[in-house]
Amino acid sequence: xxxxxxxxxxxxxxxxxxxxxxxxxxxxxxxxxxxxxxxxxxxxxxxxxxxxxxxxxxxxxxxxxxxxxxxxxxxxxxxxxxxxxxxxxxxxxxxxxxxxxxxxxxxxxxxxxxxxxxxxxxxxxxxxxxxxxxxxxxxxxxxxxxxxxxxxxxxxxxxxxxxxxxxxxxxxxxxxxxxxxxxxxxxxxxxxxxxxxxxxxxxxxxxxxxxxxxxxxxxxxxxxxxxxxxxxxxxxxxxxxxxxxxxxxxxxxxxxxxxxxxxxxxxxxxx
Amino acid sequence: xxxxxxxxxxxxxxxxxxxxxxxxxxxxxxxxxxxxxxxxxxxxxxxxxxxxxxxxxxxxxxxxxxxxxxxxxxxxxxxxxxxxxxxxxxxxxxxxxxxxxxxxxxxxxxxxxxxxxxxxxxxxxxxxxxxxxxxxxxxxxxxxxxxxxxxxxxxxxxxxxxxxxxxxxxxxxxxxxxxxxxxxxxxxxxxxxxxxxxxxxxxxxxxxxxxxxxxxxxxxxxxxxxxxxxxxxxxxxxxxxxxxxxxxxxxxxxxxxxxxxxxxxxxxxxxxxxxxxxxxxxxxxxxxxxxxxxxxxxxxxxxxxxxxxx
Lengths: 271, 310
Description:
By secondary structure, chain A is an alpha/beta fold. Helix content of chain A is 50%, strand content 13%.
């Protein structure tokens, strides 16, 4: 008779218990150094859909979005200040037009959902930044992305960089163009570009370089994702597909990062 | 990115290393560096070594053939392999040797890999010999490294020329000793028309430096009015990079030894879709078997370059 309420209560108790256990686990994890910026290459959505016989071109990507929410929640609880997500690369436009449209529509739907949550105060300290060549995307997405960035600009608890229409090579081209325009105005002497000039004009200039890159789906490559920024990052890959990525994968990756921290610090001092 | 692969720790087992080293030295002494007809080569082994002529290690006939091992398929061989030769110092430390002994062992390992690349149809091999980060090492080690490099180039000059290998050096050469620069220029000039294998040695190199120098060149051309800002694109930057010395500037496979899971500022732009392989062995221990494992792993991968495999 009271089944639904009992189930609801049971779920709440279970969630509270899980949350308490996570808190304890993260307290232990935080004894060691935590990466400042974790970046995720979210590979394996379509294989996940195929594995579980999910219908629809965007089924895998919808499952992937659920994974995004959990991972962001865990990162926030751990206290990771920055998270970067590789949502859609410039080379992904090579996929079938139907799939590209599906993914774009899904992203627009989620961005609009995030806008509602931001307006109603439910985004809880999360700032969202879109990095990439937004001019190559449709007008509606561009406008929604801009609005979401403005609404969440003041939030500081967790800064999420979502890379859309992104590729490092294009990012460097864009940065060179911008820094050329700046530098070529000054005087008649030789133009000397410095690393700081190029880095200052990159899409991801607002956030520090990733300390840890996690690639799901078993692939062992960077796929034109932040190859400049990840030159000294720890590269961790897992066979789990992106929608399967869970708490333990994240904890394992951070433990690995902590183990290799000494070497990483020495290399960083060289810059 | 390698953690799933568990290999026996060859670098810690003295006897295993000894056997592997003996086998390498024996092969080197009966099959000269990069030559395809047997010739005796002077043994340049490590100090703690070993005279190879009386090795008890069996030498299988398969290793002498020029054909690929059966695990590898010729149509799936990478055109360009890049290697970060990490672990010489640790290898020497594990044996209670000086760092320069590790580097000497590293050169022997490199010779073996170059030979295999030439035999197995790999067109370009890029090796990360000395990074901009390595300038902080003790002066004595840096001087040794450059003199070892100079001696190796001089001693292998003839072999490279005869075996149709082209050598190119990339990186910031402004801090290299003049004598080394002279040898480099000479060997680049003499081997520039060779076609069998191109060996690119990155000395004083960093990926960011490479991209930056390309961007500086482009920025100066914009300033001089040669090109417009809007004309700057990926192709233009690619043409200015130091890897413009080769027809295949993008590595298909990057191998890093010694278990480090990092790219360490090597070939930044060019690594966009390169398959990465991280080997646990230290570089002097990474021989033929490690190379075959890396190539096998490469051949099993699905490369999509952002698209979809239908």
